[in-house]
Amino acid sequence: MKRLLLLCPSLLLLTQCETAPEWDKKSLAQSKLPVMEPAPVETTPEVKTPVADASGVFTTASGLRYRVLRSGPPEAQSPSTFDSVLVHYHGTLLNGTVFDSSYERGSPATFGVTQVIPGWTEALRMMKPGDKWVLQIPAHLAYGPRGVGSKIPPNSDLIFQVELLNVIKGF
């Protein structure tokens, strides 16, 4: 039952979408992460924070790659595992095929921080309200060998543009 409860919100990410609005395509195209093998992670010894490479792409120890497009207020709080988030997002396969987009639906989505794929959870825990990032999520942090229906093939790396609008505090 727990597995079903955790899977159901994740499947909300999957609605039929064909193309992104022009403004979203342009933003995503300008911020695409170079597709390559995960780079070794350089960290500062005291805080273990990922360091950006020369192109501004951060890589975490798990292999999640991200680029910061816009930063929210520095004093804002990142969500905890007990919180929910209000986000706008646009998800594609590496070949650019759109599989889901709250932008296209015209309405942001609310998710529990731990009720999404592991790559999202990791990114959301680092983001602050107002942040807009492009994520490259390796298959092992996405849906892995199972894929999702006909939209996301097995072992697919995924690209998401994620805008964290608000944190809804949990308990």
Q: What does this entry look like structurally?
A:
By secondary structure, this protein is of the alpha+beta class. The chain has a single domain (2-10, 56-168), classed as Chitinase A, domain 3, CATH 3.10.50.40. 19% of the residues lie in helices and 25% in strands. It has helices spanning 2-11, 22-30, 102-105, 118-126; strands at 58-59, 65-70, 84-93, 98-101, 109-112, 132-137, 158-168. Strands 1, 2, 3, 4, 5, 6 and 7 form a seven-stranded antiparallel beta sheet that branches. It starts with a helix and ends with a strand. Residues 1-24 and 35-47 have low confidence and may be disordered.
Summarize this structure briefly:
19% of the residues lie in helices and 25% in strands.
Main traits of this protein?
seven-stranded antiparallel β-sheet; disordered N terminus; 7 strands; 171 residues; 19% helix; 25% strand; alpha+beta; Chitinase A, domain 3; globular
Tell me the overall shape.
globular
Q: What is the CATH class?
A: Alpha Beta
Work out the helix count. 4
Helical fraction equals 10-25%
Stretches where pLDDT is under 50 for at least 5 consecutive residues are: 1-24, 35-47
Domain count: the total is 1
Mean pLDDT: 81
Q: How far is the first residue's CA from the last residue's CA? A: 22 Å
